[in-house]
Amino acid sequence: MKYHPIDSKLFIKNRKNFISQMKPSSLAVFNSNDIYPVSADSTMPFEQHRDIFYLSGVDQEESILVLFPDCPNPKHREMLFLKETNAHIAVWEGEKLTKEAAFTTSGIKTVYWLQDLEKIMFEVMTQCDTVYINTNEHYRANVETETREDRFTKWLKDKYPAHSVAKSNPILQRLRSVKDPIEIELMQQACNITEKAFRRVLGFVKPGVWEFEIEAEMMHEFLRNRSKGFAYTPIIASGNNANVLHYIENNQQCKDGDLILFDTAAEYANYSSDLSRTIPVNGKYTERQKAVYNAVLRVKNEATKLLVPGTIWADYHVEVGKLMTSELLGLGLLDKADVQNENPDWPAYKKYFMHGTSHHIGLDTHDYGLLHEPMQANMVFTVEPGIYIPDEGLGIRLEDDVVIQESGEPFNLMGNIPIEAEEIEELMNA
Ligand SMILES: [Mn+2]
């Protein structure tokens, strides 16, 4: 791992919170992700499943966490099963967690090698009545492959058909949406790395540069700051490419007079940041570009103030829609008749701003969180309005990541990343 070790207090607390929501005489199991194949013997880089990471800090393939708070044997109330390692295996397979290192990372004292799994599972399964399995219920999930977790669940249900089953996911959705101070600090580090990359790019962009050259500059800054890289597939969209919302080719040349929309940010220690900025290729916004830019910025600033405890996500979007409608009227993109005759299910503003304004962010970029429940302090959200005008060859989105406070305005984790049009022009021309 490139990141600095994380205090195991975080994972100990996360397990305590999870256990407090479990039914009596129940056990919960969490698996690592597979290492996904390419072909021949090539593989994709490993990405740990965020739930086992959240509950243990273990960032290694073929790991299993078992929680059984009512177990008669105190040794088996928390257990890790890991791939065996020793000095000899390490020569061939590289460094893997020893039992001691697994304890330091997770705070879990009982660590077995995987070959003991079936035997120990038989012992603990005969001592419990309910088993918590971990299904993916994220509102945007769309998974076609069978995960390691799915395979384990099938095996478990097949071998122990008399157990009742419960769901871990709703518990994790609630817990993971409210961040611990240690997590907020890790997210701040991800945002700070993103800031370095963005400032580097401000000094690099000029007419004729290619979108992928900008991508390379950012990756350089991420890697040298202990990030694995982009938290999500980067969007570097010049000119009309900005109007393709999920443009990820990043293979065009940036032209004098155009804008570039970046939706690019670093991960750190598996935590995401999520930034959008829109800058002029030649270092100076035209009057029209600046007018649209400042309209987006005003919507962002006003929307941010609505992210307070008690706000319901859907109501918030209705309010942001009103802010956006008034800006679009001001820009002459909508007229009063468009608004009077609008379809309430697809309001007029959606012609120019067709995506959501905010999502939870954390270990996943589109993080866990039950959207029908009211917002709470220490939830972290993005704020990302945009205006997209294909007829004018421009699209502008501005996005920061903010932490909801007990009272007052949210804390902006990206408060140091330049956003005022004048400051961006100044830095590009320095
Ligand atoms: Mn986002």
UniProtKB/TrEMBL annotation:
Record keyword Metal-binding present = yes
Keywords for this protein: Aminopeptidase, Hydrolase, Manganese, Metal-binding, Protease
Q: What are the recorded GO MF terms, alphabetically?
A: aminopeptidase activity
Q: Which Gene3D superfamilies does this UniProt record tie to the protein?
A: Creatinase/methionine aminopeptidase superfamily, Creatinase/prolidase N-terminal domain
Give the stretches traversing the membrane: none
Cofactor(s) the record lists: Mn(2+)
Q: Which family does it belong to?
A: Belongs to the peptidase M24B family.
Descriptive protein name: Xaa-Pro aminopeptidase
Originating species: Meridianimaribacter flavus
